[in-house]
């Protein structure tokens, strides 16, 4: 933190596994998933303003709402009340939207942590976690980061030993996937879904970890862009896996040169977001 400004980088996540384990009476689905932070970052710049100055949010990407619909604004309300004052936030997006990489939840978690620190609020970790649960199913994970077993609706978190840094390729087309629609498609299936979490947990320390990764939503996520991404990744000897409910797809690669070659082919094929990334062992940077 420099003076009245705090700059935070918040990583995206992928799901090394995602099993749908049930559905609650309130309509929320329960899951068992291994969440993993990766080196794709949004940046939040928080500035302390006057005590009477209303909260404001700006963003570098057109189409991202900067009003009360944004989870960053909701985090400010959770910490500071219905008419929050004293802080402004500028959001620089790199995590793609509607990708299943948790960008909105990540930004929300960073806002919770950043506002607490910038304004020196007397809020405990337990209080912050309770706020995060109410704001969104994935938000609590981003308060922690690293490698975590997520259960319940994603709010029951068991930190796991960090895995060694692994090289990844992550890609997403122009088309996003609506999470509610994806869950409706899952509910409409009559065949039992495959499960992956047990195998992933058993192989977290193994070189061939990514061959065991998988996602229940792979059964329903299917559009032309996703098919193209999967095909190219398979041609490079990798196992393509959806992240979250999509539409981002990731794969583990054995070395940097192979990863770069895969990204180059994806880009040449017209995939708008394709990058070499790696797993990370921490959450929000800059606190």
Quick overview of this protein structure:
This protein is an alpha+beta fold. The protein contains eight helices and eleven strands.
Q: Could you please describe the fold and organization of this structure?
A:
This protein has 287 residues and is of the alpha+beta class. It contains 8 helices and 11 strands. The model has no long low-confidence stretch (mean pLDDT 95). Strands 1, 2, 3, 4, 5, 6 and 8 form a 7-stranded mixed β-sheet that branches.
In terms of DSSP E residues, the strand content is 25-35%
> How many DSSP H or I helices?
8
Weakly predicted, low-confidence segments: none
- Rounded mean pLDDT score: 95
Secondary-structure map:
Elements: E1 5-23, E2 29-48, E3 56-59, H1 71-80, E4 87-92, H2 103-118, H3 125-135, H4 139-142, E5 147-151, E6 156-159, E7 167-172, H5 179-188, H6 197-202, E8 214-215, H7 224-235, E9 241-242, E10 249-253, H8 256-268, E11 273-278
Parallel strand pairs: 1-8, 3-4
Antiparallel strand pairs: 1-2, 2-4, 2-5, 5-6, 7-10, 7-11, 9-10
């Amino acid at each position: 933190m420099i003076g009245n400004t705090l700059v935070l980088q918040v990583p995206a996540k992928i799901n090394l596994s995602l099993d749908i384990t049930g559905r609650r009476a309130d309509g929320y689905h329960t899951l068992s998933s291994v969440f993993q932070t990766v080196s794709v970052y949004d940046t939040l710049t928080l500035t302390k303003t006057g005590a009477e100055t209303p909260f404001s949010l700006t963003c570098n990407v057109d189409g991202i709402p900067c009003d009360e619909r944004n989870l960053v604004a909701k985090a400010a309300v959770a910490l500071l009340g219905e008419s929050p004052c004293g802080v402004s936030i500028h959001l620089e997006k790199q995590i793609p939207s509607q990708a299943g990489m948790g960008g909105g939840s990540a930004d929300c978690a960073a806002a919770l942590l950043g506002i607490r620190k910038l304004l020196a609020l007397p809020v405990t970790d337990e209080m912050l976690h309770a706020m995060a649960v109410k704001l969104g199913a994935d938000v609590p994970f981003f308060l922690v980061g690293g490698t975590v077993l997520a259960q319940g609706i994603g709010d029951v978190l068991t930190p796991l030993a960090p895995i060694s840094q692994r090289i990844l390729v992550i890609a997403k087309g122009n088309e996003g996937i609506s999470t509610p629609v994806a869950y409706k498609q899952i509910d409409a299936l009559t065949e039992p879904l495959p499960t992956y979490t047990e195998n992933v947990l058993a192989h977290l320390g193994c070189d061939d970890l990514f061959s065991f990764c998988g996602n229940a939503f792979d059964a329903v996520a299917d559009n032309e862009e996703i098919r193209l991404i999967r095909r190219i990744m398979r041609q490079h000897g990798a196992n393509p896996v959806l992240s979250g409910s999509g539409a981002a797809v990731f794969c583990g690669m054995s070395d940097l040169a192979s990863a770069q070659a895969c990204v180059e082919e994806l880009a040449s094929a017209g995939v708008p977001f394709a990058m070499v990334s790696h797993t990370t062992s921490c959450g929000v940077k800059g606190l």
